[in-house]
Amino acid sequence: MNETQAVSALSALAHTQRLRVFRALVVAGPEGLTPSVLADQLDVARNTLSFHLKELAHAGLVTIEQQGRNLIYRADFAHMNGLLGYLTEHCCQGGVCEANESTRACASC
What own/partner pairs with CB < 8 Å and gap ≥ 24 does 10-13 have? Predict the structure, then answer.
């Protein structure tokens, strides 16, 4: 991941509704969700949801698959992990980092 991709992903997630959508897709896992299910779960208008899904897809955070008449949205875990890796790339000044499980922070920081 490069800086431009990281900024795009972070910008997409820097909106309450998009963050909620992305988290719902993460919870759904590899099966993903249709826009109607997402709209019902999050109590959001479908046209508003469509806009937010488009922004998340443009940032590479979600994938879209057509199954018959339905679109299935899924969190792109590889892209999400790439973003996390980019953000923590120089943790501990580039040395080996042993994360503290209780705080999820770098143990040597």
Answer: 10/83, 11/59, 12/55, 12/56, 12/58, 12/59, 12/61, 13/59, 13/61
